[in-house]
Specification:
The chain contains eleven helices and 14 strands. The chain is α/β, with parallel strands linked by helices. The protein is globular and about 65 Å long. Bound molecules: phosphoenolpyruvate (PEP) and manganese (II) ion.
Length: about 375
């Protein structure tokens, strides 16, 4: 059972005290308080866990701090929708809003290689009005003998350059909980010039200890990639691990499924699940066409398969696109062949804007049915 308190309920108020007192007396029921800082107000939600079936919704609704009560299913307790359209979605981070109505592009380097390429990328993003990017410092590689990423050594220049070019949020994969502290320290050292969204890669979707560590910290939001060989339900439960530890600022990212059926693409594109994730959960949904498609091939009209896949995701309502770019793909240490180049950037942005507008127009066509 979920209790939504009146907005901006003061934890020192009499209403809050009486409400908590009542909850503490319930037999076989424990509670967990979850605060959500919105743009205008703070929302407090209380999750009742345990034997809640015997509780009367009317009685709990009557508690002084409670605005309303929602009976929730076992699945995705925090991140799920539970047939309640009024619950807010998403979060704000470093001045950027991420929710199921927002739209952001995260074009950038799969792997940071040197300051020159990072700067070229960021300069191009700024010139085209972008405020987010992707930059891989810790790379999970199939072979232990290939480039593993520059790790913490590259963080200071990546963050400084992000500040120089007004980049507000960098999606950056971490593969171990110690990387959270390394990122935190590098941001402090450089004077917090930018923000970081911690990415959990598809190989770590069910690394529960990593998920719990990321969920325990409150500084950074996270982007969870769908596991490439598990069900959607299993991946959504992985996201719930983050939220259950206290940090529900999570974006869910589709990135294709590993199967021979996807050939000649690297993975089978699964962007038809964009609306499914939006229906089942309150998470903003991202698509990663680069790691789904994994090549630089184009159709007879000249449009890259990667861009077609991105368009399919956006036209279905994706809130974010994570996409590999590189100023000189032949110099890239990781995933060069699938990277788009700087001259591709304006065309890609125009295309994505068109797809986003089309999605909004599509929504209007169906709004009368609701
Ligand atoms: C990446 O985004 O760089 C990456 C490794 O993606 P994935 O975890 O989806 O393979
Ligand atoms: Mn990659």
């Amino acid at each position: 059972m979920l209790l939504i308190l009146h907005p901006d309920t003061d934890k020192h108020s009499e209403e809050y005290r009486l409400t908590i007192e009542h909850l503490e007396c319930l037999a076989d029921v424990s509670y967990r308080v979850h605060d959500i800082q919105g743009k205008q107000q703070k929302l407090t939600e209380i999750y009742l866990l345990g034997d809640t079936k015997k509780l009367s919704s009317d009685e709990i609704s009557a508690l002084p701090a409670v605005e309303r009560v929602i009976r929730i299913s076992e699945e995705y307790r925090i991140l799920g929708r539970h047939h309640d359209e009024k619950r807010t979605t998403g979060f704000e981070y470093n001045g950027v809003t991420f929710d199921q109505d927002s739209f952001h592009l995260f074009a950038g380097l799969c792997a940071v290689d040197n300051p020159k390429n990072v700067e070229e990328m960021m300069r191009a993003l700024k010139a085209h009005g972008q405020q987010c990017t992707r930059m891989g410092a810790y790379k999970p590689r199939t072979s232990p003998y290939t480039f593993q990423g520059h790790g913490k050594n590259c963080l200071p220049y990546v963050f400084e350059l992000a500040g120089k070019y007004d980049i507000k949020v960098i999606a950056m994969e971490i593969t171990h909980e110690s990387h959270i502290e390394e990122i935190h320290e590098a941001l402090e050292q450089t004077g917090n010039p930018t923000g970081v969204m911690l990415q959990i890669g598809t190989r770590n979707t069910q690394n529960f200890e990593l998920l719990k560590a990321i969920g325990r910290q409150k500084q950074f939001p996270s982007l969870l990639k769908r596991g490439f060989g598990i069900t959607l339900n299993e991946s959504l439960n992985a996201a719930e691990y983050l939220a259950s530890e206290g940090n529900a600022n999570v974006v869910f990212c589709l990135r294709g499924m590993k199967t021979e059926a996807g050939n000649p693409h690297r993975n089978l594109v699964d962007f038809a699940h964009v609306p499914v994730v939006k229906r089942l959960t309150r998470m903003p949904v991202c698509v990663d066409p680069s790691h789904s498609v994994g090549n630089h091939d184009r159709d007879p009209s000249g449009i890259l398969d990667v861009i077609h896949a991105a368009a399919q995701g956006v036209i279905s309502g994706a809130n974010m696109v994570l996409i590999d770019f590189h100023p000189h793909p032949s110099e890239a240490f990781v995933d060069g062949p699938q990277a788009l180049t700087i001259p591709d950037l304006p065309r890609f942005l125009d295309d994505m804007e068109l797809c986003r507008e089309t999605y909004l127009k599509r929504q209007k066509i169906y709004q009368t049915d609701l």
